[in-house]
Amino acid sequence: MKSRDQIIIFSDGACSGNPGPGGWASVIVLPSDEVVELAGGDPGTTNNRMEMSATVEALRFVENISGPVHFYTDSTYVIRGITQWIWGWRKKGWKTADGKEVSNRDLWEELAGLVQARGKGSIEWKYSRGHIGIHGNERCDEIAVAYSKRVPISLYRGPLKSYSVNIMELPTDTALPESRPPTEKKEAFSYLSNIGGIIYRHRDWPSCQRRVSGKSGAQFKKSKSAADEGEILRGWGFGPDVIIKEG
Predict the structure, then answer these.
(1) What is the pTM of this model?
(2) Shared domain check, 104 and 53
């Protein structure tokens, strides 16, 4: 077991569809031997955004609690982003190597601020491979998936000795997988949204997200081509004469 002057954090994100409904979760073990579970969800989001939300919310929770942080996550995107890629992004004005806007910039800036405020070297980022029986990771995954599906789940807050999860059985191999340069996914042809039978075509995910976020019964999907658009619309029950508005 780690010395209790350390803050132990596990986090995870889940998303169905990517973009689609998502959830995030963090489990925090404080130096006082108190365990706190945090969670949240979004009806229209991405897996990376949920991974980042879990990270940001956990560090925000311990912002005023002293002690080194050992942060366990299965997201190489989060670890490499905050320890490697962010410096180049900033230098290029928050652009990727191929000149595109950095995704999730708002969360990256917030995460960078939390890390900087904590002090250099105060956070150890540890890769925790998912779905191999690591108790902290499995619990976060369980909560995140429940939130993504809007399934009720109880969050624990109380003493470590009464916590049913063996959270302090920590992974011994925390080395990152072989490094690969960050790549952006192939651009979508469009994003379609349907609210009450009114179809919009969006050229990027943020504009689609703004329309569908929080709207009950909203449908949305990324298309890869004009033909793919037709398949999506047919799947939603619309014919070739459907009117598509530009969003």
Answers:
(1) 0.73
(2) yes
